[in-house]
Every structure is written in structure tokens, then in C-alpha cells.
Amino acid sequence: MFACGAANFGQFGMGPDMVADYSKFKRSEWVEGQIKKGAFGAESAGLESIAAGGLHTLFTDEKGTVWSCGVNDDAALGRVTNNVPDPNNEGSFLSIDELTSWPWPVQSLVDENFRTVRIAAGDSIGAAVSDKGEFRVWGTFRGNEGALGFSNEQDKQDLPAPILTLSHKPGDYEKVTSIAAGNNHLIICTTHGNLYTLGAGEKGQLGRKILERRKIHGTHPEKISLGTRSRKAVEVGAGSYHSFAIDENGDVWGWGLNTMGQTGTGWLSADDDIVLLPQKVDSLSQDSLGGDRVTQIAAGEHHSLFLTRAGKVYACGRLDGGQLGLKDDHPAITEWKAEYAELFNGESPQFLPTPTLVPYPDGDPVVQISCGIHNNAAVTSGGKLYCWGQGLQGELGCGDDDDVVTAPRVVVKGDKWLASAVSCGGQHTLALLKDNRDQSA
After folding, report:
1. Longest dimension (CA), the chain
2. What residue intervals traverse the membrane (predicted)?
């Protein structure tokens, strides 16, 4: 595991001495030490997945164990970090720094033999799906006015909890297949193509109406539909305050905050800035993409990325910090600004509402995408890692002189190290890299 950006709250899991901003990727000696010990599974087993949250990090190993590190004020780590006995010193307790700045297993999941295959992290929320399609969530949701809590009964959930009950008919067991986390909301997709949302919903991110006097009800999973109930979802994605789903036909649906066209459903006016119910993103249909289809979606605060089966990336939303990976003279940007400048008092709008193809310097297909607040990262089939956007605390991994990168830039070349996964958080970025060097040399 490698990390860049802000490490001052233990997000890297590299210990209490990492308290600065790092503009280039730092290698985790702790992870390498655990690999040598066999702590992640069989001999030489490593990490399988990573999820960077607001100020915390989750990752899974080859045994399916979830590990966590970073801030735990709102129970984001899925484990207790206060008054934990020191196993090596009877009568003593482990320090908060020891329990948060280094990764520790989410022990309650281990104890119930929960083998995790998917994880998601929001600002102060964590979620996991097992190989059996079971779902667990922990932490707390926050709304516009502060902590919204976790449910009617409690303000936060310290340990992973099963809060979603699915239908279990003989021979027809419904399971969770996909999850995505925004800042303070979750989207869940099941084997039956059903969608459930929970969390804060003031910006329409839940795809259902939440009354102000009953907004705590948003923390209970409820089913939503993609136009009609016959539409079945197969994958989900989330930004800070907006959400997405892909249905079985390959159509993309977006909803939530749309102040800068980040849902991709179109932009009408500054007064029409929330998409309350899922709407189809017409420009990303298979017909519009020439038979290609979207397979993965990632989003930041006000922008979104869409990855297709052919390895192409499309982007829409805010662009004033290089978020879209498109240069200022890109035809889609110049045409949009010229056409709608009158609506913005003669000033150029700082967003692009139509998903537009992001050009890459080579033809290596992209296989995974991730978004931070204003930054992005992508992994290619050849093991390259690209970063772009705005990274004021080093989360781009490009070095001290580059706070804004307007076009995808290679930060891992795919020669000595091969990138296999990347995740962008609130102020930090994590990457899993495989050593491609000849170990006998």
C-alpha cells in the first residue's frame, strides 16, 4: 500500500509520526511487514481492496478481514478505541494514537466469520459486504445541522451492525452485491436488482423525499425505483451529495445535488439544482456510446466520472480545478461556455453538465476509477496510475509544485510497480501497487 496527501489524523495507517502532508506516494512499511508475517492470509498474501473515507481508511486483506485506521470520533473505524486493555501489560490501556494511527482489524467481523469482499467509506461511515451477500454498516451520518446520528435509537454505531432485512424465500435468497458511499449517505444494490438508500437526504441524494421533521427516517434503508419497478439495478456509485445506478440494460441513472451538472442529467438553471428522483443520463446510453456501456461510476463533491466496458472515461460537473481532466480549450467546454455565457452575466460557467470523453496520452484502457473531493485517479490494464484535478494537500501524488493538474498525468508508470487499485478520500489517496521487479536480481 502507498499513500499521499494529508496524514495528520492517521489516515495512512503508518503510525503517529506521520503528521504532515505528503505530495508524493509514501510506501507503507507496516503493510509490507504484515505481508512477511503472513498476517493477511497465506504466505506472502497482501491486500485486496482499499477505501479512503473523510479522515479514515478501510482496507481488506486476502482473508477477507477489514482493517481500519484514522479518526474515530464518530465511530468510523468500526471498533472501540477507548479504554482498550493492553494485551502485553496487565492493568494498562492502549493509547488512542496506537489504536487509530496504526491499522487494526475490525474484530467483531472476524468473530462472526464475515469474509468481506466489498467495502465503502464515507465521511464517518463504513460499510462492508461479505462473500455471502451479507451487509454491515457502522459510524454516524451527519446532516446540514450537524450529527444526524445513526438511527432513532443511537447517535453512532461503534461496531458493524446488520440493518437491512432482505427477502429469503426458499431457493431465492436476496443478497447485497454492490454498495457506494457519499459523504453521509449509502446506496445498496441487491441480486434482485433492488436499490436501497439511507443517510442524509437534504440534497436529494437518497432518491426519495425526506420531510424535515422526519429526517432521522432517512437513516433507515428504504427501496427506491429507477423510473419503474421493472428496472433492475446492477451497480451503484456516489458523490458527496449525489448518487448513481446502472441498470441491467446499461442505462445510467443519476439523482441528488446538481448545482454544477454533476448528475449528468442536464442543467436547466441555478434554481433547479436538485434532482429529487432518479433520472436517466441519456448521453451515456449504449446507443449514445456506440454500443459501449458504463460499468463503473465514481464522483466527488461537484463532479463525476464514468468508466465504460471499453476502458474509456467520461466526466461532467465542476471544472475550475481540473476536475474533469479536460483542458480549457476542449471543444465541449468552449462550446458550452459560448452558448450559455449570457445566463452567467457574461462570465464563463465553471462546469460542464454533459458527460464528455476524457483524453488519455496513450491507449491503455482504464480498469478502475476513483474520486476525491476535487481530485481523481485511474488505474489502467497495464498497471499505470493516473491522477488529475485539484490537490491542495498533496492528494494528487504529483509533487510539491502541482496543486492543479488539468489532464490525466502518470504517477505510476507500470514498469517497476504495477497499480492494481486506487481510492481517493477527503484529503488523502491510497494505492495498491504490485512489485514488478525481478526479485532475484
Report:
1. 72
2. none
Distance in angstroms (rounded) separating the CA atoms of residues 161 and 164: 9
Q: How is the chain split among helix, strand and coil, in percent rounded to 5?
A: 10, 40, 50
pLDDT along the chain (441 residues), means of 10: 96 94 96 95 93 98 97 96 88 92 97 98 97 96 79 84 88 94 97 95 90 63 91 97 97 97 86 91 96 98 98 97 94 86 74 94 92 98 96 92 91 95 97 80 36
pLDDT at 204: 94
CA-nearest of 365, 233, 249, 352 to 307 is: 365
| Cell numbers linked to 27 | 510506501
Predicted structure pTM score: 0.95
CA distances for 204 relative to 27, 71, 278, angstroms:
39, 27, 10
Q: How far apart are CA 78 and CA 68, in angstroms?
A: 8
Q: Are 71 and 10 in contact (CB under 8 A)?
A: yes
pLDDT of residue 121: 98
Q: Are 242 and 263 in contact (CB under 8 A)?
A: yes
- The string over 89-125, giving b where at least 16 C-beta atoms fall within 10 Å of a residue's C-beta and e elsewhere, is eeeeebeeeebbbbbbbbebbeeeebbbebbbbbbbb
Total Cβ atoms within 10 A of residue 287: 9
Residue 150: per-residue pLDDT? 82
